[in-house]
Amino acid sequence: MLLLQLVLFTVLVPDVDSDNDSPEPISFRTILTTSFYNRSWTENQGSIWLDELQTHGWDSKTGAFIFLRPWSKGNFSTEELVECGKSFHTFSVRFPLVFQDHVSQWELEYLFQVQMAKGCELYNREPSVGFMNIAYQESDLVSFQNMSWWPSPKGGRRAQQVCTLFSQYHVVNLRIQVNINNICPRFLLGLLDAGKADLQRQVRPEAWLSRGPSPGPGCLLLVCHVSGFYPKPVWVMWMRGEQKQQGAQQGDILPHTAGLSCQVRHSSLGGQDMVLYWKQHRPMGLVFLVVMVPLVLLAVSQATFMIFSMCSPLSLPSPFPVCP
């Protein structure tokens, strides 16, 4: 798993009222993952992401970027793109050598993996301070901001040592600063303009209710499926009348299922929420609520599963009926 890539992704079902949400920042990041097998063998993998959408691949042999979308070049000239590619390729060669040269001092043990993520964010088309983060073995190690390297609180002595060394690379740090605070925002704005028609498209979600496998004797599993929507942000909640059932995220037990519905809110629906009602066919005693939200690393056809497990108290041991 690639830590820095995963931590930048957002959850599909926010636990807030969407009416109070502020605009989400747009993140653009380049990721380089280096696997160190021994003193003479390393392997690089690179990619570029616009939020959760991959816009570029990277050929580690030639050092060339692979444009995955018709608009992946943004508004940069061919010369600028070639220069960016050369710069990243040079970095991919020299960056692993630093760690190879300090294997003993930093107490690194083969096989290990180091990942770098650098980029920038836009808030309402206004750039924020760029970022560069480095992780070791899926744990944050150091970060760069405003011409300074900062150790992760959990990085220990190794993080302090890396910061001390990296802080000496004044020319390199200046280039990083220019890249993340000048070049990156400019390219991101051009990318958003070039891909506007594609990025701003709206795809309505599909939603339905179904029964899942019984989690135990006397239990009924209900699943609210939401899939196929774009863009990613979606609000999904089990409701009882006008009341949100926050217990669906906490595992609380409710007294009965009367009036339950699954409500879906998405930008493609024009303010008209989708509401799916569960028609109860026979009385049930207690309702055990669970929400499962998998992280789906796709731009479309994402899926959200919200699950209710309803248990009859007569078929479960007292005094606390529980579904396994």
UniProtKB/TrEMBL annotation:
A GO biological-process term: immune response
PROSITE patterns, alphabetized: IG_LIKE (PS50835)
One term under GO cellular component: endosome membrane
Entry keyword set: Endosome, Glycoprotein, Immunity, Immunoglobulin domain, Membrane, Signal, Transmembrane, Transmembrane helix
GO MF annotations, alphabetized: endogenous lipid antigen binding; exogenous lipid antigen binding; lipopeptide binding
InterPro entries to which the protein is assigned, alphabetical: Ig-like_dom, Ig-like_dom_sf, Ig-like_fold, Ig_C1-set, MHC_class-I_related, MHC_I-like_Ag-recog, MHC_I-like_Ag-recog_sf, MHC_I/II-like_Ag-recog
Membrane keyword on record: yes
Spans through the membrane: 284-308
Membrane topology: Single-pass type I membrane protein
Residue ranges annotated for the Ig-like domain, each copy included: 185-268
Coiled-coil segments: none
Subcellular location: Cell membrane; Endosome membrane
Gene3D superfamilies referenced in this protein's UniProt entry, alphabetically: Immunoglobulins (2.60.40.10), MHC class I-like antigen recognition-like (3.30.500.10)
Predominant place of localization: membrane
Signal peptide: 1-18
Name the UniProt record assigns to this protein: Ig-like domain-containing protein
